[in-house]
Fold these 3 entries.
Entry 1:
Amino acid sequence: MLYVYAISDSPDRPEVLGLQDAALSASGGKGLFAIWSEHEEPRLGADEAALLKHERVVEALLEKGPVLPMRFGSWMDDPAAVLEMLAERRSDFELGLEQVRGAVELGVRALVHEEPAERVPALAGADRPGTAYMLARLNDEKRSEAIAAHIHEPLRALSRASTSRKTSLSGSVNTAYLVDRDDVDPFRAAVQKLDQAVEDAAIVCTGPWPPYSFTPAGSTP
Amino acid sequence: MTPGAVRDPTLRRPVQARDVALVDLIDRLLDGGVVIHGDITLAVADVDLLYVGLRALVASVNTIEEKMGVRLSAHSDVLDNDRLDVDAFGSDSLGSDSVRSDALDSDALDSDPFHSGGAGG
């Protein structure tokens, strides 16, 4: 079985080894390729080492050119299956590669500080703990939304695209931005400036990442 | 980091920064990227993934709290690091036997690429 790391516009493989220290191979043609390694069985522990190895391959590819990273755990039967997948989704992949060419993903996370209940006017009329709780959560949501909008404005101007990522912490913001390589430093500086300016939240910039959040949707049937 | 290069940052960042980044990395690897098969597995491996994410999140809570001066943990049983038995999640691989439920011990897992308790990796 083949473990697939990424879609690329080039068959050139970086000099890193893949999962289980397997050598990298490429399949494809006419400017569209998939990078993979071969393994006996499609089993791997979803442990930190495997995740980091997948990521290391993808980042090494990113150093050379545009890349559409695969989701972790993408297996295919054989090179023929890979060629079939590439053929089926060629136009999506070609468009996707052009959209990320010369860019990286930067993550922006904001953690909104809790507002003490005494400072929330809406809670003044709450007569029961349950009501107070719900009003406090509503207040948190509104503050989050306001802060998210405030953060997004300057960063939108410095990026090609953006998309929200899921966040499990309430009162937090998690957004991915697709940023030209040349704009990475200005973007990070802008995030730092926001962090200093916005008192109610801690804002950090993570990455650069390969463009995991900006790959074409859809799947091979 | 120079603008033109992306040099293996996950392996060269200082450990503390890497702890925080691990949450973001795992999130992207497992929830982002190109999907080949629509039913990507993980109907079965959802629980495994939960542990992958949870372990990394727990490991990074302290770091985030220190760095940002906010309190994330509600001091619940789950997030209370003093009580948390990290070994329950397995030191080398996630989803060890001690947290595996009967629902996961099925034949269907043999062909599942996320079978983290078995061989390989």
Note: Helices of chain B lie at 9-12, 15-31, 46-68.
Entry 2:
Amino acid sequence: MATLLVLTVFLPFVGSLVLFLQPKLEKKTARMTALITALVTLAFSLILTAVFKPDVTTPQFAAGAPGGPYGWNWLSGAKIQFALGLDGLSVWLFALTAVLQITAIFASWESITERPAHHYAFLLALETGLLGLFASLDVVVFYIFFEFTLIPLFFLIGIWGGPERRKASIYFFLYTLAGSLLTLLGVIALVAIHYQHSAGHVLTFSIPELTHGLANLKWPGWHSATSLTSPQVFIFLLLFAGFAIKVPMFPFHTWLPLAHVESPTAGSIILAGVLLKVGGYGLLRFNMSMTPLGAVYLFQFLVTLAVIGVIYGALTALAQTDVKKLVAYSSVSHMGFIVLGLFAMNPTGIDGAVIQMVNHGLTTGALFACVGVLYERYHTREMSELGGLWNRLPLLAFFLILSSLGSAAVPGLNGFVGEFPILAGMFAKNRTAAVLAATGMVLGAYYLLWMVQRVLFGPLREPHQHGDHAHAEVRPVGWHEIAGLTPLMVLIVLIGVLPAPFLARINPVIEPIAARLESSVPTTGGTPAPEVTHMNPAPAAVVARQGSR
Amino acid sequence: MSQFLAHNAWLVPFFPLLGSFIVVVAAKWLREQSHLPIVAGIALSFLVSFSLWMVAGPDVTSPAIEWLTISGFNVPIQFRLDGLTTMMLAMVTFVATLIAVFASGYMAGDPGYPRFFALIGLFVFSMTGLVLSNNYVLTYLFWEGVGVCSYMLVGFWHSKPSAAAAAKKAFLVNRIGDFGFAIAIFWLWSASINHDVSYGNVLSRENLDQLGPAAIMGISFLLFWGATAKSAQVPLYVWLPDAMEGPTPVSALIHAATMVTAGVYLIARSTPLLVRAHEVQALVAVIGCLTALLSATIALTQTDLKRVMAYSTVSQLGFMFMGLGAGVNNVAQLAVFAAMFHLFTHAFFKALLFLASGSVMHAMGNVIDMRRFSGLRHRLPITHLTFAAGGLALAGFPLTAGFWSKDEILLALKHAAHQAEPGWGGIYVAVYWIAVLTAFMTAFYTGRAYFLTFWGPEKLPSPQDPEALAEAVDEVDHGSSHTEHDHGHDAGHGHDGHHVGQESPPIMTYPLMILAVCALIVGLIFGPTGLFEHHLHLTLGYEHLGHLEAHGADWLVMLMGSLAAILGLGLSYLFYAHRSPIPAQLAERLRPLYLASYNKFWIDEIYEKAVVGTTLLLAEISAIFDMVIDAIVRGIAYLPRWLGGAGLAPFQNGLVQFYAGVTAMGVAFLLIIVLFWL
């Protein structure tokens, strides 16, 4: 299985190379090559998901013995291993990447006519970057994939984007690069600290080993957080810089609307569907797992940012007249929910956040695909120029309404399964934050349904060039658009109706992370319930723990 | 046997869902027969519900199936089959079957025929699921589920801008209520024993005893908050009158008989919790009273028959909450029985009144403005008689269904006035008298609607009516030109060669007749015989509720109720049966009051300005502020250039390698600081 994992990660890259070497390929051949590659990758990733053992907390499908070392020695002098594996945190995001890739390819099916081979090549390269990132078990490998994803997306936006594509791609590139350099610094600091203070001066870049080692470091200074310059707090902030921009958290979100509006549909789908999740994933994998005291110390600050993000993102979405911008700002709001769940620091909230990352990928991916369907036909995204399209494109109405309801966290669809536990978890932790964030639930329904009303309901209104003469010109929703959206619809309903199998793979790995966070968490607000197992009525100050547990 | 039935309770929601599924899959072939799977599905689920009525008991539950399992948050799918649930099930499925049959005639010829019935099936699935659920989260799930069905059905004629706006409004106002409900659940979850939100656990005595007074108050209040939206109470009632934009059978089923009673159901379900918070109880009674009075006042002057019925529904729901709110100390049991009994009888007569209005509308070529038709009793004999039966029940005419249940509520309020905590009795005295006044107004506006529609000189709508012309001008103003795709309200049905002014076909009149019989006799059968009370006794936690030693008939209360009904109906007869000039003179003399009522106290407009306006203003401010953030970020990015000025200019040589090299050096520099400093 370890071989299959490596194969899954690099198969798209092979496809990408083939397309790069054949730049003159026709549209039809190029897209078919990309589709077949992506379908095989999807099949492989589904096999991996199917044989994934739910109860195992250590990484699976890794080369080497369970418990490590996990990979092949790569730079053996520096102890850097090429190690790949999946655990409960990454397995669904891994599968999500493979699913959304199909949607992205189908969304480009007709719309990309200029240099199609390169377009699909970049798209496939991006997939390898994301799959590799989620599967990495070594910080260096992680970081390489992390930075690598920027390059194909930079070109996707810069070449196939809208009128302001160059500005958008440079802005996006520099902003995220600036953040990720600080993250790199934080990662190196973690490795260095682990080397200096672990018993026997172990130099390791392995993520599981670092996580375990740092928790048991024999350095009292590491286990206390009293000021911004305490080591865990400081490194937390370094790591946070890159991930918060990726999420994006308020106020680091301004690159997102611009990037989305200028990006081609496929780029938006992957950007919002998967790339933003890298931020949430990184926060959980590094910040919460390796520097938990930083999270505890900065709790107020972080939760404030997340709550502002939820409400502010929703309000800004409400003010948009461009459908794509509206969906982009909705991502700011929904990603705020996810971060909120992480900082609830109890298993309920974190579990909800992890499944919500997958949910948001599905619903937002679907929404961007729907916007793509609109834009291809009318060459506008201004809602004032559109209306009553239910009559014209009934299938689009179905897709758009279902994904909007899923996004608005209507129970029975996927969004609810994540959002409800996130808010419940936050409520147990801090009532004010949960109540404030819950207003995002109302506002979320507001901007989504208003968008649906303006686009689909009412008498038919189409932009002028399509107005009088050309009823026949508007293509009905095509088979490739149906093929791209249907899997997402199925998953939106499936996760909503049968969440248990999805959650069963997440729960086991969350418990230890949450346990570590909670053991150092002072409770704030609210009377602790009787027989509460995971709310520790600990002292009101951060506990400085000595030595290993 | 009872075990067997309890284990198969899932069949109740399953059959309508299966029906919907068949319609969706086979819509192409079914077309005009799309109602068949739905009618069959709902009828089957009525049969199951009826047999479940027999096995009901306070602790009968179906086995739990794993659903949402997150660490610390466990929600199984489990059904509870106690008295309250089985009563609701039987009522919902019975009324829904009749309405579905009626709709198959009413909706004939509509291009969205299959979609309509698929949604109706989905709605019955959600509604039965709502009352079957054995925990708060599952109830919440179906609670939003019925909301979504309502959204899709109110906006059924999606080309019509007013329908689209009404659908969105309904969903959003309900979301505001769901906000309260959701927080109530979070609170229950975090404060209950074992984090178990099943009814059996939450409403158990041990759990209620260990919840602090703040939690009891807070949770009760938040649950009631949730109920005010779903059951259209002040201040969140505004969506319901607008929801009449949906097809009339939808108004009958969802916005009169079933979904809007979900809030009443939730509070009744949580009664063991609410009786411990007497302040919230008083609030429930006062809000119910305020709602009943306000909407009855509005109903007095409306000219749209369906709107009269809509405001009357809001008002009657207010009566139910008055009943629930009366549940203080020893009155608790009586109060909840009274409220639920009114819910039960109301479902029959209000569904009937809506369907009869629909039948009028059908016959009038989709005109529902009472100024445009009159004297229809000869042309629509069946509709006329059935409407009269429903009207009598709504007015609370002695011995009809509404009489018995309204009487119980008045009785509960009267007892509450004596039994309330010291100092709180006065509230209930006031509520009692306002309730009597509202009952009188109810009888009056019901009579007014009836006499205006069926009495007086015979008149059919004509396009030359001033009201019709005004409407046409309105439509032009809103720019809603009818294109060939616009199958809105007016073109909605009537392709079946049906002529204006004729009685509806039998498929529509038979359900009317059955409901009319029910409206007259269900009160008598279930009320004085104690059947209803006995059945509701079998509800979780109700046996421990405070109850009076003995409560026989209170003749004085009965007399008050009868007087209110008879006086109200009599007055409306004097005013409207022979078109007396008095109402016009009264309207002239009390012009401000009349205008306030006619314009619904401008509450919609106030909300539009205050709530929607503020939200959108905040949204605009956020959008502008976003540009500021963007500018700041860019400013920081340019900061080095400004600071460096000429001195650093040579370094900006445009060589990417150079930049990369400098960046690497910078990182290395920072790294050294980090390593040494730590």
Note: Chain A has 22 helices and two strands.
Entry 3:
Amino acid sequence: MFEALDVIRAMITENERIILEKLREAGDKLSIEEIQKLTGLSQSTIMAVIELLKSKGAVREEAHLLKKYILTEIGIDNLEKGMPEEILLDLLKKSGGKTTIKSIIDVMGPKGNVAIGELKKRGAIVIEKNEVKLLKDVSEEILKEKEVLKEIKEKGFPSDTNVISSLLKRGLIEEKLERRVKIAYVPQIADKLLAEAKTYATKLSSDEIVSGRWKEVVLKEYNVEAHPPSLYPGLEHFFELFLEKVRLVLRDMGFKEFNYNFILQEFWNFDILFQAQDHPSREIHDTFWLDYNSDTILDASPDLVEKVKRIHEKGGSRNIRGWGGEWRESVARRYILRTQMTSATIRALSTGLSIPFRVFSIGKVYRPDQIDYKRLPEFTQLDGIISESGFTFKDLLSVLKDFFNRLGFEKVKFKPAYFPFTEPSVEGYVYMEGRGWVEVFGAGLFRPEILEVLGYAENVGAWGMGLERLAMKLIGVEDIRLFYSREIDVLRKHYSKALRALGE
Amino acid sequence: MPVVRLHLDRLKELLSGEIKEQELEDIVFTLKGEIESFNKTDGTLDIEFTMDRPDLLISEGVARAIKGLKEIETGFPKLTVKNSDYQLLIHDVPSRPYLAIGIIKNYPLDEKTLEELIQFQEKIHLTVGRKRKKVAIGIHDLDKIPSKKLEYKPVHLDYQMIPLGHSDRWTVRDVLKETVQGKLYGSYSIMNNHHPAILSDGEIISLPPVINSDVTRLDVGTKNLLIDVTGTDEFTVLKTLDLITSVLSERKNAFIELCMIVRNNNSFLTPGLTPTFVETTISDINRTLGVELSGDDIVRLGEKMRWEVLWDEDNIRAGAPEYRTDVLHPVDFIEDLAVSYGYSNFTLEPKPITTKPKEDEYTVFKKHVKRILIGLGYTQFLSFTMISDDLAKIAPESGISPIRIINPISNEMSSIRPSIIPSLIQAIRESQKSGLPLRIFEIGYYGYIDTKSKGLSTGEKLALALVDYRVGYEDIQSALEGLLSILGITPVYQRYYSDIFIKGRSSIVKYNDTVIGYVGEIYPQILVDNQIKHPVGVAEVYLDILYQLWKIH
């Protein structure tokens, strides 16, 4: 209980004021439902406010037990299917006012006995020998009783309390005690509160502003030093931040994007690139084969297929030899998941590009590989091709150096390498603070056999790189699996990291 | 890429002197290789080399290359070649027609040499030999071969031999069935109850590509070798013999002896030790590399890589030594010139950009879509295209079958996802603990087969998911509509039933009769199966279709 001094200094909320005022108006105790009807507040709000008011001593909760009645199963049955005495009465009327006990039982079963008993009580029938004779039509009485049952079903209480004992006796209804709570107004405290306490709000509302009541409302002081509940914005994937940066550099260098299928036939992933059909990388350990067939090679004219066959077997016009053996179309027709993005750039090349051109493609490639902190069977690669009049190997190195400089790497190192479809080939390293030289890309001039099939006179440079690996080094991600994390916390954390690492 | 373990002692002996670690590292770098480790305890190095240089898979080959780059010895290696009186009669062996043999004399085997020799053979099998299918090598102690007249022919499976590592006689049949090598390679050349064999005086000395006989086994103390190479491709068989005999003869005092092959009344000597000649021009070389080399420069650079080069005016004729298996075209010479020149010696200048920068429209469109969804509070996920067979059943379309992977790495990745929805389900499972509501989306590849037409459908889809304590159809529908309205597309929703959605709570989304996608509340059993505790609403659209519709506007 608050002391007088405390009451003056006490504050109440808007809802407390509303409920107290309604209680005072009513002049009597009110139930929660009644308060709800009067205030329009939700039950849970009302109950919370009542607790507050109780703690201040402004209201008192009074519980009393209310006696109610409910229908028993028999009662419900009677109401729905008809009372036994009703049914018997009906039966009697239909059989000319009399019938045998036996017939009654036949039709009604054990209920027949109940019916006989009831009608006898009411003096409606007389039993002679095994016959039952109708004396009085008590339908109206019975109907009245049904009404009472209905009433009890709906309201829990009949208007005519006299019938209660007989209905109880007959097992048609039963007693139920319900705890009813009523809230009582405690004038000594409540009056003072209403008169003197200031109303405060936790949040300003539109109502208060518009009505001008904001002048009277006191806003509860917030603990502004505390941290708020978490609110997370929608975010782009952190890897895409990196990919955007790469695309931007490529755009500035005059590159155009091209896309092609990730599900292809070996023709477009290997054969068009002059990779021998018995090359180890085309085996079950290095390429994913798909359970799908076709009789033709998609996007390849018979002419092109013929050219590729010839070049594989015999080599091009300036070859000493080709791969020998027999080039089989059945092998080239096999469906796989692409293993390299050169499959897309070579497709672009096959559409007939006019020099000068700079084309790139970014997409997923697939290789059967263990999953560990630096390897995935499915990862993202960038492949680019470039050509112009008089394009040289030196030009390719220059473009590569330029690309990596723009990505933020000052020092680039080139190393002789081997790729089946480029010659000369080169592997590239960039220098990263704290990590030293890191291998990031492979490149080279397309082998002449490839250019001969596709009809290119100028040299075409090509280069490819795994993007997750580069992003890992740039952003500081230790495990490649994190790029495909299923945990949103991980994505949020790395997004923040990437924002810093990727700079402008 | 093959990795070999070489003995530093052998290398030093072959080089007749010391070589510093750093210098070795730099040379290996130039030879496209990478030293993986220096093993101080046993004086070995683990080096990874590339597939085009099988000659480097033994110390002799590496030493030869080093001598060239350091200009100690340049041009073709000087081989000592003599005739032997060994003869091989080749009969018809349809399953493995080609065989060539050669002899190396004065090649004493100590432990380290034997180790490297076996490794050399094994690595060539893996690379050039395509795991013994294309080419297989047998190395024998020459002095243990019963007779100088050898035969190559198919023998019946009941024929007997003493397989390597055993002292008793087995039938060929048992050798194929019971030995490790028999189980691995026995199926390659068997034909009509016969298997190819090399015999000497009726004794099987080799059963290619499976196993050698114990009769001619190599031991510490062996001094002279007979090399046999069998295979299905004549050129590769002859080239492989050239490779092995040439490289091994790099050893001091070792020399090659030729053998006579008789086949179909033709006779010829092996190894042929033939260089590969290419013709090009100085202009071509300079035009390809972007340098200005003179004829003399080209000769010097080529010789460092052990080529022999002649020039006259603009013409260049270059020969690759017999042990080079990778020369198909003049460009293979040009690369060696670049390597010899030194990749770091190219003076690089930034190239003027003569192509117009242009962003890809579809990529830009995707950027807009992402931006709008982020604005609706959705976070982007990226996941795998490959999923389990079970999850591949979750898709809103009807009449489709998943594309299965024949050789998956695991059951978790054995099919291609037909929809992004199962991927989002996986993400929700792990992310639901981080707080609700959870709003996520993904743009990614999908693929499926139309069950009736058997046609393949692939492309990109966008899927979004909303997870909360309570989620209703319109909650997710309003997100999709939010996106579509900004894109200027007013869709039509039609009642649609799919067993992945709650009945009566899903629709197919269309625009002018084109199907854009689907929206619905996920059927709870799917949630339960995936340990998801909260209701989920998803929407999925075909991004390519959306893009086309957006362009039309």
Note: The radius of gyration of chain B is 33 Å.
